[in-house]
Amino acid sequence: MSSYKDKKVITIGVVSELTGLSERQIRYYEERKLIFPDRSKGGTRKFSFTDVERLVDIANKMEDGLQTFEIRKMEQKKLRQEELRERMLRGQLNAAFNLRK
Questions:
Q1: CA distances from 52 to 30, 46, 66, 87 (A)
Q2: DSSP output for 50-98
Q3: What architecture is domain 4-96?
Q4: What are the boundaries of each domain within the chain?
Q5: What pLDDT score does 96 carry?
Q6: pLDDT tens for residues 26-64?
């Protein structure tokens, strides 16, 4: 079951109010592949609370002088590290309990 924070239910206008970012900035971050909102049948962007937190983090990094490609690279590195950590943990559990895939 996914967390309420991951449900894509918030419109871009509300996200703009919550983050202080303009709708244009939010769309730009989507274009730069930093966030991935869902779309309703009518084409309206739908964001999650996790997306809102991510947008605030992106805005802070941009204020610190980072470029969007640098932020994307950092995020990709973080995901790779999390995947590696998960594989290592799975391997340790398999070894400890003599489990096979």
A1: 12, 11, 19, 29
A2: HHHHHHHHHHHHHHTT--HHHHHHHHHHHHHHHHHHHHHHHHHHHHHTT
A3: Orthogonal Bundle (1.10)
A4: 4-96
A5: 86
A6: 999 999 999 999 999 999 999 999 999 999 999 999 999
